[in-house]
Amino acid sequence: MPTYTVTRDVTRPNTSTLFPEKAIERHGFVNLKSSGKVSITASYDSDALVQTTVFVWASKTDYTQNLRGADTRDSVLNTKQDEYNTYMKTNNITSRITEEDGTVRVFNSSNKTFEVE
Predict the structure, then answer these.
(1) CB within 8 A of 36, min separation 6: which ones?
(2) pLDDT digits over 60-96, tens only?
(3) Which value, in Å, is the radius of gyration of the alpha carbons in the chain?
(4) Residue from 97, 115, 106, 109 nearest 6 by CA
């Protein structure tokens, strides 16, 4: 089965604000990583305001089964994602997700969700 790559860029307003993954401990991907469904790597831009995280999913199905609202979503991810999104809203953090197929999702702080652009 081919892998499916998703890239998330997170922009924080200043360096005193922690990136969400530092505040929320990888935002709940622990079960998915240990089961081999996703590998995650992160890098930072030169001013340390943008974090780019690359998620390589075992398959597109594994990715879509763990999107918000999916019946098959990992329960730990579901709980941590609520905390993650609340943290982003509270700290004025923006985010953009680009999927391998070209789909783009942008964080909407008013309802704390990622919406297709």
Answers:
(1) 58
(2) 999 998 888 888 877 878 788 888 899 999 999 999 9
(3) 14
(4) 97
